[in-house]
Amino acid sequence: MAQTQPLPTLNLIGAGRVGQTLAHLWAQAGVFAVQDVLTTRAESAQAACRFIGAGTAAQSLTAMRQADVWLIATPDAHIAACASALAAARPSSGHGSRTVLHCSGALAAAVLQPLGDQGWLQASAHPLLSFAHVETACAQFAGTPCALEGDALACAQLANAFSAIGGQCFALRSEDKLLYHAAAVFATNFLPVLQSVAEAAWRDSGVPPEMVLQLRSALLQNAVHNILAQGPAGALTGPAKRGDLQAIARQAAAVQAWDGKAGEAYAALSALALRLAGH
């Protein structure tokens, strides 16, 4: 009888929503054997292991065992320092090829260079999904686009790992990461900001609070439906669609008088809307 090959091992540094989601999905799918989990607090590492359904809470970086793959899932601002600390704690040895990755949308794999200098394969892998809640993210992950960038061998390994949990992988150049991630900000992060501004303007113009909530539900659902059905240009309405420059100017002045920053945003977005409409 043929022997079953052991799963490659995975260590996790930082266990926020992204790290927990990926480690849980990989563990459940039999992609990686989740081994050690390190966070800033032992309690959070233990809680992460419980959610993942595997792994052991580590007390320190030096206490973590050797692993085939290391996922640095800290906030972006700490990834470089973490890579340097890991390189110091895990100098080159006879362990063989190791892969290290992070999941930042804005940072390239080069931020992991202290490990690359020691022969580690390095990559970045960014799943284009809102990780607002880990249970929801796990349920929604199948079909998620995953941008891969870094060493070719690492990207090939990660393409298999992400595909096994339903990710749809594609290659991204390191010099395009900032623009790519800014696009995700436009598509998702700015939507709550714009909705907040709209609701504040409605309230200040006298719309009853309960109607503000109705407008939120109705207009957002209609807008999303129209964009999905007709695309951005086809879903565009209002004065920009008609090319009504006078109406745009009057509204811009009213918004500027109400809130300066919102007025600047209204003017800039109106210019983009006019371009989209072909005016």
The level of helicity is 40-55%
Number of H- or I-type helical stretches: 11
**Percent strand:** 5-15%
Major sheet characteristics: 8 strands, mixed
Quaternary: single chain
Task: List segments where confidence is low: pLDDT < 50 over at least 5 consecutive residues.
Answer: none
What Rg is obtained from the alpha carbons, in whole angstroms? 23 Å
* Alpha carbon gap, first and last residue: 71 Å
What topology, given as strand order, has the largest sheet? Answer: 3-2-1-4-5-6-7-8
- Give the overall shape, derived from the CA principal axes: elongated
Number of strands: 8
Order of helices and strands: EHEHEEHEHEHEHEHHHHH
User: What is the residue-averaged pLDDT?
Assistant: 94
- Helix-strand makeup class: alpha/beta
Q: Can you describe this structure?
A:
The protein is an alpha/beta fold and 279 residues long. It has helices at residues 17-29, 42-52, 76-89, 113-116, 134-140, 152-163, 177-204, 209-235, 239-242, 245-258, 260-277, and strands spanning 9-13, 33-38, 56-57, 69-72, 99-102, 121-127, 145-150, 168-171. An 8-stranded mixed β-sheet has the order 3-2-1-4-5-6-7-8, sandwiched between helices. Helix 1 (17-29) packs parallel to helix 2 and helix 7 packs across helix 8 (209-235). The longest helix is centred in the C-terminal third of the chain and has 28 residues, at 177-204. The protein starts with 8 loop residues before the first strand and ends with a helix. The mean pLDDT is 94.
